[in-house]
Specification:
This protein is α/β, with parallel strands linked by helices. It has a domain of about 110 residues: Response regulator (Rossmann fold, 3-Layer(aba) Sandwich), CATH 3.40.50.2300. It has seven helices and five strands, in the order βααβαβαβαβαα. The protein has a five-stranded parallel sheet with strand order 2-1-3-4-5, with helices on both faces. Helix 4 links the parallel strand 3 and strand 4. The longest helix is centred in the C-terminal third of the chain and has 19 residues. The radius of gyration is 16 Å and the shape is globular. The model has no long low-confidence stretch (mean pLDDT about 90).
């Protein structure tokens, strides 16, 4: 399977939690390279480098409590940035209060909220679903993604885009 130019970015300041997230996404990493950062500032640097290299960021999984800027503020900033506006954003945290969560949903157009501790299945299902949305909206050739992502939804999109029916 060919690696795509679409990356997953995981932002988490606790190394063991970050390692667990990356491990849970292992099934996707063969096609979607995973980058990590431990702070909002480092995340900005990683994002800038990926875009400089002509890469895309399909999914960001972000903790709320980070050194410096918190995750909600970072996600709001990324939503307002033209380069990361379409990126799917997930708040993965056990620390965000209701006000912060509502703010993330409203201002960062958060795509999903996953409370800690999470289940591997939920994290993977949410990631596959959101990456499927991202490739359908942003990629011309969807066939390479059918093995890793939601093949049924991708097939349906290809058929509807080309007015192909099963009949």
């Amino acid at each position: 399977m060919e690696r795509s130019d679409i990356y997953i970015l995981c932002i988490e300041d606790e190394q063991e939690v970050l390692d667990a997230v990356v491990r849970d996404l292992e099934k996707l990493e063969e096609q979607f390279p995973v980058e990590t950062s431990t702070s909002a500032e480092e995340a900005r640097e990683v994002i800038d480098k990926l875009f400089e290299d002509g890469k895309k960021i399909g999914l960001i999984l972000c903790d709320h409590i980070l050194p410096g800027d918190n995750g909600v503020e970072l996600l709001i900033e990324l939503h307002k940035n033209e380069r990361t506006h379409d990126t799917r954003k997930v708040l993965l945290t056990g620390q965000a209060g209701l006000d912060d969560t509502v703010k993330a949903l409203n201002e960062a157009r958060l795509h999903h909220y996953i409370p800690k501790p999470w289940s591997r299945e939920e994290l993977l299902d949410v990631s596959v679903n959101l990456l499927t949305d991202f490739v359908i909206e942003n990629e011309e050739n969807l066939l390479p993604y059918m093995i890793t992502l939601d093949a049924e939804r991708i097939s349906e999109h290809i058929r509807s885009r080309h007015n192909i029916s099963d009949e």
